């Protein structure tokens, strides 16, 4: 027969398995007091109603027993509850199985799909604009828009924000697209990594882009450099600047938060940070970072860092998805590895799907749950780089690419590329 004391254990409420906190923000940690995993079917109700507890009432109880239990529960918890009639399975925890759900297949993603985030809508694929020349910029942007791109990435250090601004002004004036339909990203330069410099550099970027705000503003690197004597001069190569060994990332982040408060940036994030640096920001921030931009390609897959970010509601954007073949010869650990676009596994899979090797790599990264910003000014490649939503890798092919990971040995933008930066206290990679 029904055992009331045992049932009380069931509706003592929800708590976090990891920290025992009743209001833990990581919903996936929640569990029943009796040890059952939190059922995702109730997530919407719990988040919207901010319930304090779940009330279980087995269906086989008499009406009188149900009423008594309901009164007892409300007297202890209050009305901020969900009443659930789960049926007899609730009396047999060992037999309980959550309902089977049909997962959304990756192939159902489209060019208009956004990375998973609680508030920001960041398109999966954007156009990287570094090294696109002044003469090429307008054609590249128009080609990208026609192909379906709505995400555009630049940076103060790229020295091309003015080119983008002039092109966007013409595009907006033509009525081809509205500003609010685009997601535009730019970045704080390395020699601006101080709280007091953030506003100056973002205003300079907005002036060049001819915009009132950017959708996402990133700290380009955790490593700070000293400002040149003439701060308004053309952006110097960061390898020519003197390291600022007193970079304070927590204080710098306060300057970033101020840009959101002022309406100059809708969201803020970081680039090239490691998990410890990100955690330091999370532990001290008022406005959380929403995005990490980092090197990620088939030889450097950063599984742990991606997982860390996703657990903390931080999207990930991969730059250099094709491994920056131009500088690979300088990286000794990659001397025996083919360029990603020439990898035999990638080429074999590309032949199987009748796709370009670049499309297989980009599709793989999409299926890893990250965004990508491949850079190109070639109209054909711009189109190809976004045409990756009409197929899905099989589990076997996905795992074949997973097996190509070389870990830290696969990094291109490491000590060789960074030069003296590796001596900075905030250098984010293993030395």
TrEMBL record:
One Pfam family this sequence matches: Aldo_ket_red
Swiss-Prot/TrEMBL keywords: NADP, Oxidoreductase, Signal
InterPro entries found in the cross-reference section: AKR, Aldo/ket_reductase_CS, NAD(P)_OxRdtase_dom_sf, NADP_OxRdtase_dom
Keyword Transferase included in the entry's annotation: no
Keyword GTP-binding part of the UniProt annotation: no
Residue ranges of domain NADP-dependent oxidoreductase in the record: 126-405
Secretion signal, residue range per the UniProt entry: 1-21
Gene Ontology MF, one: oxidoreductase activity
UniProt superkingdom: Eukaryota
Family: Belongs to the aldo/keto reductase family.
Protein's name in the database: NADP-dependent oxidoreductase domain-containing protein
Species: Nezara viridula
